[in-house]
Amino acid sequence: MRLDYITIFPPYFEPLGLSLVGKAIASGVLQVAVHDLRDWTHDIHRTVDDTPVGGGAGMVMKPEPWGEALDEILGGEQQKTCLVIPSPSGLPFTQQQAEDLATYDRLVFACGRYEGIDARVAAYARTLVEVRELSLGDYVLNGGEVAALAMTEAVVRLLPGVIGNPESLAEESYSASLEHLLEYPVYTKPASWRGLDVPEILLSGHHAKIAQWRLDQAEQLTRQRRPDLLG
Q1: Class of residue 155 by CB neighbours under 10 A (exposed 0-12, middle 13-18, buried 19+)
Q2: Vertex 66, ends 63 and 69: CA angle to 5°?
Q3: pLDDT per position in the chain (231 positions), as tens?
Q4: What is the bridge-based pairing of β-strands 106-110 and 2-7?
Q5: CB of 178 within 8 A of CB of 211?
Q6: What span, in angstroms and rounded, lies between the C-alpha atoms of 59 and 184?
Q7: Could you tell me the pTM of the whole model?
């Protein structure tokens, strides 16, 4: 898979060289390119924003540099590609979205700032590739970079060869094998720590009972914290 990031703050993406994503890049599973949007500006100040049409506070990212950037980065694209625009007004980014995006050959993240990107940019991009405007949650960030990094981790860990033990992906929060519930509590050794004990069922060696306990715990936790997931 290839990942491209268009941003006015390229250093935001230096953490991509760390941990499992960094290993995926080093092994060749992943190709990454970070592009500075200001490279497609033509004035001495390298301006990427202007005042909103119709009035209002803040600034809006201009369509001209975005258009030129997308033409160059996406021009003649033949791979299965999606342009992802992180936005608080986008569709919710879910595990299912991550699983679907993991099937693409290339993802391009358009990281907006200020009050956002001129809406015509997304409309134009849809004439070139598939576009998804996605939101991490019901809150607003200063820009799209943090959201792009979070989405990257969610997608890349699903690629073959990235997670050392693929079974680690089987029983996670939102996974089909866990009926899309939140993951049950997990424990490790020692069996007793500071007066707190590991549940006895987990020490029993009875795999069927342990599996049922974990499913019960997952449902209970989901009912407490995310009842919307129970339908």
Answers
A1: buried
A2: 150
A3: 999 999 999 999 999 999 999 999 999 999 999 999 999 999 999 999 999 999 999 999 999 999 999 999 998 767 899 999 999 999 999 999 999 999 999 999 999 999 999 999 999 999 999 999 999 999 999 999 999 999 999 999 999 989 766 666 666 777 776 788 999 999 999 999 999 999 999 999 999 999 999 999 999 999 999 999 997
A4: parallel
A5: no
A6: 44
A7: 0.91
- Cα 2 to Cα 31: distance, rounded to the nearest angstrom: 5
Helices (H), the chain: 19-27, 63-74, 95-101, 119-125, 145-156, 207-225
Strand, coil or helix: what is 136?
coil
Q: State which H helix or E strand residue 201 sits in.
A: none
Q: Can you name the residues that pair with 106 across neighbouring β-strands? A: 2, 81
| 85 Cβ contact partners less than 8 Å away, ≥ 6 residues apart | 109, 110, 112, 117, 122, 131, 132, 133, 134, 144
**Cis ω on the peptide bond leading into residue 11 (within 30° of 0)?**
no
119-124-126-131 Cα dihedral, nearest 10 degrees: -40
Identify the DSSP state of 189. Answer: S
Q: How far apart are CA 25 and CA 17, in angstroms?
A: 7
